[in-house]
């Protein structure tokens, strides 16, 4: 249908040009005199050029694109060079090049920057370099270069999309966070739970008789010096600090800040030589059971570059089964709005949980509503650590544990 409209429009413009030719010729024939024939001969080159341009094949034109910025972060700059090639040296006048993309956010950002008008003349090759500042996060598909040519007066216009499809991934920005493991809990007292246990060799709780297989570093040498009997130091068992990171993709004006915080946390944990599991809850949950190396981190960053706020039901309804399968003692929940239903869902389904920190993302200076304050107090009464964080204190989410 679009192609048919283009053909009809082109032939309509050609008929207009032929009508102008007929009009000027008729005026010269019937009026006579120097002025009328001067008008005819002056308009004749423009009319002939318009006719020739009508039949000039734009299929002869090809394009390529070179991207200069290999990796782009949100808010960064993107630059590329588009090059146009053609085989026939037909003189082209007003030529407009425009980058065409299917991304609404990128189209909005590129307004006024993504097109350029040139006069290539007889040149067979010409290039156009452009830059886009403040790139929005996401997966942006560059469909190709839209080419439009016109004659002197705009009587004939032709356009064609030169397909050069490339994908530009804009990753979320990150901040440097000093990672500190969440509070360790020992096997004494009411907080004991059946988690994976490791020996804390910095804290001896007693001594016992030596058993084959005990490490030499565990031997209590002072006792051996007194009794000439090998004794071994006993240590407290500490619950493992495997972290489970959870976030929801509810629509919110602070969703981009939430993505930046999650990306920063993941980066800080991996670069601190620790590991964690990550679950992103949306229309289709994305689960990463082990994030420990830079390769694992890059896979998650690819997900965070494309992720959108697509959760169309309450987070507590979408998370129940995943929480029941979770086998960790430490949960870090990142959200833009904490709800009582979500607090109850975590308490009900996360059976082995002993530490839970909820990070509620807010914009700088955004006031805390009364109903949100009630939810935060309810979560704290259930033993959760609730912190309301904004971009200026992302870097201290692990160090300022007591900040409410």
UniProtKB/TrEMBL annotation:
The chain crosses the membrane at residues 38-58. Residues 207-364 form the DUF58 domain. Pfam families: DUF58. It comes from the Bacteria. InterPro entries: DUF58. Keywords: Membrane, Transmembrane, Transmembrane helix. This is Uncharacterized protein (DUF58 family). It comes from Planomicrobium stackebrandtii. The lineage of its organism: Bacteria, Bacillati, Bacillota, Bacilli, Bacillales.
